[in-house]
Design goal:
alpha/beta; 6-stranded mixed beta sheet; 3-stranded mixed beta sheet; 9 strands; globular
C-alpha cells in the first residue's frame, strides 16, 4: 500500500507514504492519502497526526508516468482532483498535522507540507516547485506559506529548490535534524501536542484556520485553472513527454 495509517496508544496517528522509488503518488495514492487524513480527523482518539514517508525522499508529486501512459485526460483530471483532496485534507484535518520531511519534497510534496501545522526536517531535506518544467502550475499557494513572497516567485519561476536549513530562518521549518533523528524529533513535537486536552486542540485548529488570511483551497483551485489551460494548448503534454523520456534515459544508464 502507498499509504498506511497507525494510531498509537498516546493518540498520535502516524500516516506514512511509501511509493517507491520516489514517492510520486498515483491518482489513487493521492485519494488514499486524503482518506487517511480525513479518517484521522474524524477519529476522536486521534490527537495529532505525524505525516512522514519511507524511502529516500518525502514526496515527488504526481506520477507523471501514469499520466503519460493513460489515454485521454482521466489521469490528469484524477491527479488534479487527488492533489486538491489531499492538500485540503491536511489543512482541514481536525487535529494538527506535523510533517516529518526527509530528502526531496517537491511539487505535491510542497502542497502537503505547506498546509501542515508544523514541519520538522532532516538535514538532507529540500523543497521546490518544478511545475513550470512540466507545463503545470500549482503549489505556489503552499510555497508562499513557507517563504516570503519574492523568494516564492523566484523559486517558482526558476524551479530552483531551497534547503530545509534555509527555511528555519523564515520560521516555516521548526528544526532540522540528522536523518536518523527525524522521526524522533517529529514525535517529540507531536507528543507535546498530544499531551494537551484534545477538545482544546481541536478547537484551536478550527480557530487558527478560521483566522487564516488566505483561503488555501480556493487559491490552489485558481492555480489549477491555468494548468487546465496549458493542457488544452498541448504545452503540458509536450513537456511531460520530454520529462518522461529523460527519466527513462536515466534508468537505462
Amino acid at each position: 500500500m502507498m499509504v498506511t495509517s497507525e494510531l498509537r496508544e498516546d493518540g498520535i496517528r502516524v500516516v506514512t507514504m511509501d511509493a517507491p522509488p520516489v514517492n510520486a503518488l498515483t491518482v489513487q495514492g493521492w485519494f488514499d492519502l486524503a482518506a487517511a487524513l480525513d479518517e484521522a480527523g474524524r477519529d476522536l482518539a486521534t490527537k495529532v497526526v505525524v505525516l512522514r514517508a519511507e524511502g529516500k525522499g518525502f514526496n515527488a508529486g504526481v506520477d507523471i508516468k501514469e499520466m503519460q501512459h493513460t489515454t485521454g485526460f482521466d489521469a490528469l483530471l484524477g491527479a488534479n482532483r487527488g492533489c486538491y483532496a489531499a492538500f485540503k485534507a491536511v489543512y482541514e484535518c481536525a487535529v494538527p498535522v506535523v510533517a516529518a520531511v526527509n530528502g526531496f519534497c517537491v511539487g505535491g510534496g510542497v502542497g502537503l507540507v505547506g498546509n501542515a501545522d508544523c514541519i520538522v526536517a532532516s538535514d538532507d531535506a529540500y523543497f521546490g516547485v518544478p511545475e513550470v518544467n512540466q507545463g503545470a502550475l500549482g503549489a505556489a499557494t503552499h510555497m508562499a506559506r513557507l517563504v516570503p513572497q519574492h523568494m516564492m516567485r523566484t523559486l517558482y519561476f526558476t524551479a530552483r529548490t531551497i534547503k530545509a536549513a534555509d527555511l528555519v530562518q523564515f520560521g516555516s521549518v521548526l528544526e532540522v535534524v540528522p536523518r536518523d533523528q527525524l522521526d524522533g524529533a517529529a514525535m517529540k513535537v507531536a507528543s507535546e501536542i498530544a499531551a494537551k486536552d484534545g477538545r482544546v486542540i481541536r478547537a484551536a485548529k478550527a480557530a487558527l484556520n478560521g483566522i487564516d488570511p488566505i483561503d488555501v483551497n480556493k487559491s490552489y483551485r485558481f492555480e489549477q485553472g491555468f494548468t487546465y489551460e496549458l493542457n488544452l494548448m498541448g504545452v503540458s503534454d509536450e513537456l511531460r513527454d520530454d520529462f518522461a523520456g529523460t527519466e527513462k534515459s536515466k534508468e537505462n544508464k
